[in-house]
Amino acid sequence: TLSPAQFKFAQSTLHTLRKQRDTVPLNPPVNYIALDIPHYPKIIRHPIDLSTVDKKFSASNP
């Protein structure tokens, strides 16, 4: 469990990371249908993207 200060720091770090130009491809979930990579879910069994991390993290606010 994070302290409120740790939570705030981690959330700030995540938001800063999401704003970086190099992380743009990591922000939304992979749309494997639109990208025509039907084997994606067989290879990547537990996909995660920064927007999902942000939502889950925000939902766990202490």
From TrEMBL:
<dbReference type="GO" id="GO:0006325">
    <property type="term" value="P:chromatin organization"/>
</dbReference>
<protein>
    <recommendedName>
        <fullName>Bromo domain-containing protein</fullName>
    </recommendedName>
</protein>
<feature type="domain" description="Bromo">
    <location>
        <begin position="18"/>
        <end position="62"/>
    </location>
</feature>
<dbReference type="InterPro" id="IPR001487">
    <property type="entry name" value="Bromodomain"/>
</dbReference>
<dbReference type="InterPro" id="IPR036427">
    <property type="entry name" value="Bromodomain-like_sf"/>
</dbReference>
<keyword id="KW-0103">Bromodomain</keyword>
